[in-house]
Specification:
Rossmann fold; 5-stranded parallel beta sheet; two-stranded antiparallel ribbon; 7 strands; elongated; binds adenosine-5'-triphosphate; binds magnesium ion
Length: about 325
């Protein structure tokens, strides 16, 4: 809607994790390198953690993109609320192995044969679990057993778990100490600092087609985006997307700090209600209520867009 007005060809701040938009902060780079090394050097078990919206899924997609060029077969689980049997069945199915109606022991046997064959041909096989903080203790124990599939020299199945910081807490629990000991590499994503936030926004705008000309966001607006998003990429995207829409609605060629403050206030990013005691606290991510508000605001702006237009294309 605002693309032509801001000299863009694509939407720069989509919240779907699209690897073509990857902005390599030092942390993201280090994490991607660690994951890539862990898998290709057959280190066995790698864990990636990070707060909500910091880029874990994006990094996994980037990793899989890199590995596809190296003949790595992978199974990807992004809804880990499964029972141990469902979990193993899902993995076998994702590798294209016969899985229907089989018992867990049979499935593990089939999986083992498959892994051995691939290993004999020098091929890497990977299991990726996103949202792994949701895994139950039983499924985590199943994962520990999968890490036992090995030859005398090497792990047959490489495993990457990605999840929110609760995953670290789970792995630190006494119950899961055996699994924790098997983690070969760990990496963590963080929020962006002010400088990175500006660079991140500029990179997304450039990838979306901005080619020179005056900046779209003034410096104070970038500082305001950082302040309200606390450097969390998903929130940066939401704020910037809404700020572009609001700027377009006002026909402002440059997005200013007041526009950003207004958008952030409409999105109510600073507070979230605590349903237990009714007190307000700082939000670390957009909750459902905020998302609904964001959707409503987008619809409002769209309605305003559809109002009368003068011959120069400006809204009246
Ligand atoms: N380094 C980055 N470069 C470009 N975009 C990024 C980066 N990090 C995060 N993003 C963007 O931020 C948004 C959220 O990222 P993503 O969905 O990967 O977060 P997440 O950590 O998986 O969140 P959750 O914990 O909710 O699953 C996406 O639009 C993603 O493209
Ligand atoms: Mg994710």
């Amino acid at each position: 809607m605002y693309k032509a007005f801001y000299r863009l060809q694509r939407n720069p701040f989509e919240i779907t994790p699209d690897p073509s938009f990857l902005f390599p902060t030092t942390r993201h780079n280090e994490a991607l390198a660690t994951l890539y090394y862990g898998v290709t050097a057959h280190r066995g078990f790698v864990v990636l953690t990070g707060e909500v919206g910091t880029g874990k899924t994006l990094l996994l997609r980037s990793l899989l993109g890199l590995l596809q060029r190296r003949d790595t077969a992978f199974a990807l689980i992004f809804n880990p609320s499964l029972s141990p049997l469902e979990f193993v069945r899902y993995i076998a199915g994702d590798f294209g192995l016969p899985s229907a109606g089989k018992a867990k022991d049979e499935l593990i046997h089939i999986l083992n044969e498959f892994l051995l064959q691939r290993h004999q041909h020098g091929l890497t096989t990977l299991l990726v679990v996103d949202e792994a903080h949701h895994l139950s203790a039983e499924v985590l124990e199943e994962i520990r057993l999968l890490t036992n599939l090995e030859t005398s020299q090497q792990k047959l199945l490489q495993i990457v778990l990605a999840g929110q910081p609760e995953l670290d807490q789970k792995l630190d629990s006494h119950e899961l100490r055996q699994l924790k000991q098997r983690v070969a590499l760990r990496c963590r994503l963080d929020c962006l600092n002010l400088h990175e936030t500006g660079e991140y926004m500029r990179r997304r705008l450039t990838i979306a087609g901005l080619n020179g000309g005056p900046p779209i966001f003034e410096e104070e607006a970038i500082a305001a985006v950082h302040q309200h998003s606390k450097g969390i990429p998903r929130l940066i995207n939401t704020i910037c997307e809404n700020a572009l829409l609001a700027g377009y609605a006002k026909q402002e060629a440059v997005v200013t700090a007041p526009i950003v403050h207004g958008v952030a206030s409409d999105l109510r990013l600073g507070v979230t209600s605590d349903k237990n005691n009714g007190t307000a606290k700082v939000a670390h991510g957009a909750d459902d209520e905020n998302l609904l508000r964001a959707v409503k605001m987008l619809l409002d702006v769209r309605d305003r867009m559809q109002g009368p237009v003068d011959p120069k294309g400006r809204l009246q």
